[in-house]
Every structure is written in C-alpha cells, then in structure tokens.
Amino acid sequence: xxxxxxxxxxxxxxxxxxxxxxxxxxxxxxxxxxxxxxxxxxxxxxxxxxxxxxxxxxxxxxxxxxxxxxxxxxxxxxxxxxx
Length: 83
Known about the structure:
Elements: H1 3-15, H2 36-50, H3 56-61, H4 65-75
Protein name: Acyl carrier protein
Organism: Thalassotalea marina
InterPro entries: ACP-like_sf (IPR036736)
C-alpha cells in the first residue's frame, strides 16, 4: 500500500474520522477527536504501520498531518507521500 494511503488510514482509524478528513492541515487540538489519547493511539499505529520507533521529541512535535509526514520521512527517507 502506498505511504500516503497507509498514513490516511492510520489517522482515520486512530482519530475515528473519515479518510477524506485527513488532510495536511488537520491539526492536533483543533480537531475535537484528536486529543492526547487519540494522539498516542495514532503514534502506536504509525509506528506499527511504518515499522519505526519515534523519539519522544518527535511524538510531541507531531502536531499535524503535514508534520507527521515530515517526521516519518526523517525515519524513512525513501517514503513518498505523493497522492
């Protein structure tokens, strides 16, 4: 599955939202379902799906879909989130 689709599904499942709501501008605390509990579920889902282990600073900094892409690319530079 392409990285973009994997990311969208992880966000949709963790935040219990529709996949079409997962856009780069989706931001922590600005969406009612993205609270601290959902954030940890999201982190665990992304770690499992992308086979990475985030550093604490990256978990804290993961404040939007766009930022999540940047952080994941740091761990796996070959990832492409195009389309």
